[in-house]
Amino acid sequence: MVDIVKREYRLNPLHPRGRHRARMFASALNLHQDDAEFLRLRLLEAALVSDCRLGGRR
Predict the structure, then answer these.
(1) Any domain includes 34
(2) Which of 3, 4, 21, 50 has a CB 3.0–4.6 Å from the CB of 10, allowing a cystine?
(3) How many other C-beta atoms can be found within 10 angstroms of the C-beta atom of residue 8?
């Protein structure tokens, strides 16, 4: 699911590959590295109440 390595990578504005995603999360959602646990919990909540398919798009 949402593991600590990916959270650190995607929310780290200094990571060579993750910094672009970090900038997007900060700009669009005002989420930063300190918000990793908040983001993890919201994604888990969404997974519990939303319909989804592995590897698919609606």
Answers:
(1) yes
(2) 21
(3) 14
Amino acid at 48: L
Q: For the chain, what is the domain count? A: 1
Over the stretch 15-54, which tens digit does the pLDDT of each residue have? 888 899 999 999 999 999 888 888 888 888 888 888 867 7
Q: What range does the domain containing 21 cover? A: 4-49
Tell me whether residue 8 is in a domain. Answer: yes
30, amino acid identity: N
What DSSP letter does each residue of 35-51 carry, written as one string?
A: GHHHHHHHHHHHHHHS-
Asked if the model's pLDDT at residue 6 lies above 70, the reply is no
Residue 58 lies in a domain: no
Torsion of CA 54, 36, 17, 48, to 10 degrees: 10
Farthest CA pair distance, the chain: 34
